[in-house]
Specification:
- This protein has nine helices and eight strands.
- With about 220 residues, the protein is α/β, with parallel strands linked by helices.
- It is globular, with a radius of gyration of 17 Å.
- The chain starts with a helix and ends with a helix.
- It binds pyridoxal-5'-phosphate (PLP).
- Pyridoxal-5'-phosphate binds near residues 23, 67, 194, 196 and 214.
Length: about 220
């Protein structure tokens, strides 16, 4: 099946309030073009070295950073990035703010929350998010907007576990939404769900899914 058909099938399944980010890491500019021509606008990449040349080749697309971001690489993506979904420390948030301020741009971010059992995944714990808000350190960051949360469930075939992890992220999202947040924080986007678990994520309240394999096929 071609990319266009796969995108159409996934979009037909998504409720109107759920946005699709096509994860194009490891796939060529030609393949991304095929997706663009099928009407897909948003693309996610996890490495700065790959993201920058692709964004240069296809500036008409909307680029999302979804992988761990080193502070020394922030400056390369801040001029064009649409959404940094993988913010996992206050230090990174401060560097994004600094680089954004230099070019007089406001950069949209999501806080990545660690919900999986696996030790290797990056992200804030729920307690760290609470502390981040309580300490009001975000309040002084004038050139960022925190628009929501991103999380990845454990890579497992245990659907109940995946569902529990998505539920916990949704609960955090809702509790933040109803609490007293700094001015630059608005809980609008809940980014959860990948190729193998996006159906569960949507049932658990996702508003943005990040899908690679189910659109472009297996990565090499
Ligand atoms: C690679 C990746 C995805 C997409 O994974 P697929 O299983 O190919 O859909 C989604 N989110 C993040 C953070 C990723 O690194």
């Amino acid at each position: 099946m071609d990319i266009k058909k796969r995108i159409e099938q996934i979009k037909a399944f998504l409720p109107a309030h759920v946005r699709l980010v096509a994860v194009s890491k490891n796939h060529s500019v030609e393949r991304i073009c095929e997706a663009l021509e099928a009407g897909q606008l948003a693309f996610g990449e996890n490495r700065v070295q790959e993201l920058v040349p692709k964004a240069r080749a296809l500036p008409q697309a909307e680029w999302h950073m979804i992988g761990h971001l080193q502070t020394n690489k922030v400056k390369y993506i801040v001029p064009f990035i649409h959404l940094i979904q993988s913010v996992d420390s206050l230090k990174l948030l401060m560097e994004i703010n600094k680089q954004a301020q230099r070019i007089n741009r406001i950069v949209s971010c999501l806080l990545q929350v660690h919900i999986a059992q696996e030790e290797t995944k990056y992200g804030f714990s729920q307690t760290e998010i609470d502390n981040l808000i309580a300490t009001k350190e975000v309040s002084s960051l004038s050139h960022i907007r925190i628009l929501g949360l991103m999380g990845m469930a454990t890579f497992t075939s245990d659907e109940q576990q995946i569902r529990r992890e998505f539920k916990s992220l949704r609960q955090l999202f809702e509790s933040l939404k109803s609490s007293n947040l700094p001015e630059q924080m608005h809980m609008e986007i809940l980014s959860m769900g990948m190729s193998h678990d996006y159906r569960i994520a949507i049932e658990e309240g996702s508003t943005m899914v990040r899908i690679g394999t189910a659109i472009f096929g297996e990565r090499k």
